Amino acid sequence: MRNSFLLTALLCAAALQSGFASGPAIEGPKRSQDWFKRASESMALRVPGSKAFHLKVKFHAYAGDEMLAPGEKSQFIVGDGVYDEVWQDAKNWRREVTLADYHAVEAESNGVRKMQASSDYEPGRVLMLLNYLSTPVPDILTNGSLVSMNWKIEQVSSGSLSLVRLSNVMVASQRIKLTDSYFFSPNGELAMSNVDGVVVAWSEYADFDGKRVPKGLRVECGDRALLKASIAIEPAGQVDAMSFELPGDAAEAGKTLQRLHETAVKFPGSRTAIPPFSGASFPLPPFIVIGVLDRTGAYREIELIFAPDVSNLAKILNSIRTAHVSPPLVGRSPCELAMSWRSL
To answer: What CA–CA distance (Å, rounded) separates 333 from 295?
Structure first.
């Protein structure tokens, strides 16, 4: 089993270096959107009529490349963590996560959601983990959007392993060409993605009530690990309904363990103020940077994902870390948002 996971990781490196060779004719859907939809549906655990489950995840969070000055302290919350989720149906569930000093419990009982947390700030790696656990294939690729169409489909191989690669050139200019890719096994299981320089690998799938659940998850950037996780799932069995009950009032709309997306929030200030380095007095090299905008309007855990030239990038990352804006809102409630900045 371990060798299978290591092979997947090696495939990540091979993909980034175009190490795959063209393979035989492809068997499977002819349209790219059907590959995305099939994989998403096969991994969707939290849908009406699904079997109640207990998900247990052990993970390790790594720091990102912050390009800090000598002596400057890292903002990253790292180390070993545990995520535990019991799901009965869409109105009765409980999830709990611990990473370093951060601990949070979120539960919904009969449509009333509550949350308790040791801090108002949810670590960025927790957001990353929950995003890939809940939405391994982004909604924009499964909701009928034009973005899911017309990806190049080809069979590729590395050694004895064959995969189907869907790729799409997202940026093409005189400075740079950026291609997003998704890799599937011939039977349609999602094996890997490489989106905006972040590589995610899923491995060792298990069957759970007709759904496919990966036992391994690894997130990388170049030769650096960002997150790794081992996943186990079992039937929920007999569940005490009181375990879904938390004390206190219903949680604010913006306070949740769920990773929110920009389409679900609003920015009360000028959207042009983000990214905060707009109008910089120095030339901007091509780059991709990610981080978190917290509920106070501060930027945290800012890291470099991609840059062929690191000139001025320390200044850029520092300008984000020291900026402050009006926080994004869900309704009238401040929320936390994972963000990315690109200059391509």
So the answer is: 9
Sign of torsion, CA 309 312 314 317?
A: negative
Token pair 């096994």 in the structure block, residue: 185
**Residue numbers in the chain where pLDDT is lower than 50:** 1-18, 272-274
Cβ–Cβ under 8 Å, residues 310 and 67: yes
Instruction: Give the global pTM.
Output: 0.90
pLDDT in tens, 28-43: 899 999 999 999 999 9
CA–CA dist 115, 150 (Å, integer):
41
CA contacts within 13 A on the Cβ side of 189: 17
Mind listing the pLDDT tens digit for each residue in 269-298?
Answer: 755 444 555 555 666 788 999 999 999 999
pLDDT at 14: 45
Nearest residue to 298 via CA among 279, 321, 277: 321
Q: Phi first, then psi: what are they for 60, rounded to 5°? A: -130, 130
How far apart CA 180 and CA 37 sit, in angstroms, is 17
Q: Is the CB of residue 254 less than 8 Å from the CB of residue 295?
A: yes
Residue closest to 245 by CA, chosen among 106, 83, 117:
106
Instruction: Say how many residues make up the chain.
Output: 344
Q: What is the percent of the chain with per-residue pLDDT over 90, rounded to a whole number?
A: 72
Say how many CA atoms lie within 13 Å of 56 toward its Cβ.
Answer: 5
Element (H, E) at 132: helix 124-134
